[in-house]
Specification:
Length: 253
């Protein structure tokens, strides 16, 4: 099983709550990355978690440039697979950052279809993103959410038909299933439905994994993306706790 830790960046330049604290952003991001690596994760995904309220698609050029620089610092500091998630749904920027720093994968919250979100209606851009990815010198894996957290699907969608769309038509390499929000546990019945569709090695759980529930997930998922569960006191706003990382990974492996 592959374990991916999350580096939640503080608000970046160009976002509403940026505090003119660039050195602190770099320092905390690098500390979290090193603690995740030392704790034993197999990969790290970097996301602009602090840039709330998020824009739908295209982040500002200012934010993009600083995100890229920080991601490069992380990639240079830890010899581990790096992934990029540009919130809310800027897949073009995610692929661009990933290509520039030789990252292994990106996470796209809404790769295909439509979802109702707190940013409004967001429609996937699989065609554009697949053409961009295929133009790059190295193929970057696409981790795609199905029924992504902090969003509601339109009437008529099922998690089964959307999973099939992502795999068979949208170009997703991995499928991520999450709970309703950050740190929230997934619906186990939905997990079983998705597991019946997704080939072995391609199913990730993207929220809510912690010490209390890991036993029921570790034999059904192929990848665990853990953010809140690796933080001090399971608080997403706090730093990564290397002892929590080590303890949870021992329970998994």
């Amino acid at each position: 099983m592959k374990i991916i830790g999350v580096v939640h960046l503080k608000a970046l330049p160009g976002s509403p709550f940026y505090l003119n604290n660039l050195s602190e952003i770099y320092e905390t991001a690098l500390e979290d990355s090193i603690n995740l690596k030392n704790g034993g994760v197999d990969g790290i995904i970097v996301e602009n978690f602090g840039d709330v309220p998020f824009v739908k698609n295209s982040i500002s050029k200012l934010t993009l440039s600083h995100f890229t620089n920080i991601a490069k610092e992380i990639a240079d500091s830890v010899n581990i697979d790096i992934g990029i998630n540009v919130l809310r749904n800027d897949g073009e920027s995610a692929l661009s950052i990933a290509d520039s720093i030789n990252a292994a994968f990106v996470r796209i919250n809404i790769l295909s279809g439509t979802m109702y979100t707190d940013q409004g209606i967001i429609q996937g851009e699989a065609n554009k993103l697949m053409k961009l990815n295929n133009s790059l010198s190295s193929k970057i894996e696409i981790y795609a959410d199905v029924f992504v957290k902090h969003a509601v699907p339109p009437v008529g969608y099922t998690i089964e038909n959307q999973t099939e769309e992502l795999l068979l038509r949208a170009g997703a390499n991995k499928i991520i299933i999450t709970g309703d929000g950050t740190g929230k546990e997934i619906n186990f019945e939905q997990l079983q439905k998705v597991r019946g569709i997704v080939p072995k090695g391609q199913l990730a759980i993207g929220s809510g994994v912690n010490e209390s529930n890991i036993e029921k997930y570790k034999d059904i998922a192929d990848i665990l993306i853990i953010g809140t569960g690796f933080k001090v006191n399971n608080d997403v706003a706090k730093p990564v706790d290397v002892k929590s990382v080590e303890k949870l990974i021992k329970m998994i492996k």
